[in-house]
Design brief:
Blueprint (H helix, E strand, L loop, with lengths): L1 H23 L5 H6 L12 E4 L2 E7 L6 E7 L9 E5 L4 E4 L7 E2 L2
Length: 106
């Protein structure tokens, strides 16, 4: 169940990031998206924040023209089984173990 919530949060972040870009001409991090009311404030509380068993971290490039967001279980095997990653292109990738490789989510 935590995995579905994590994927849903990433999709929400992606939509919010694109909306923010359309308004301001640059991407903003989780804190800015939360300040604009585009995402839940719990996701924008810190650079890395926890939600429903997953840690989320969003990175915006220095040019503010692209971004990526990664989330991973707070405790592998207990709060989640998979890490996820999304970019400004909107495709979600997953990693099945801490040392695993990223593969597109199908």
């Amino acid at each position: 169940a935590n995995e579905a919530s994590a994927i849903s949060a990433l999709r929400t972040i992606s939509s919010a990031a694109e909306l923010y870009f359309s308004r301001f001409g640059a991407y903003g991090g989780l804190d800015l998206l939360a300040q604009q009311g585009m995402i839940d404030t719990t996701l924008g509380e810190a650079e890395t924040t926890s939600r429903q068993g997953y840690l989320f971290n969003m990175t915006v490039s220095a040019s503010q023209q692209d971004w990526s967001c990664c989330c991973w279980p707070v405790e592998w095997g207990t709060t989640g089984e998979v890490a996820y990653y999304i970019t400004h292109h909107g495709e979600i990738y997953r990693k099945l173990s801490p040392g695993g490789t990223w593969n597109a989510l199908r």
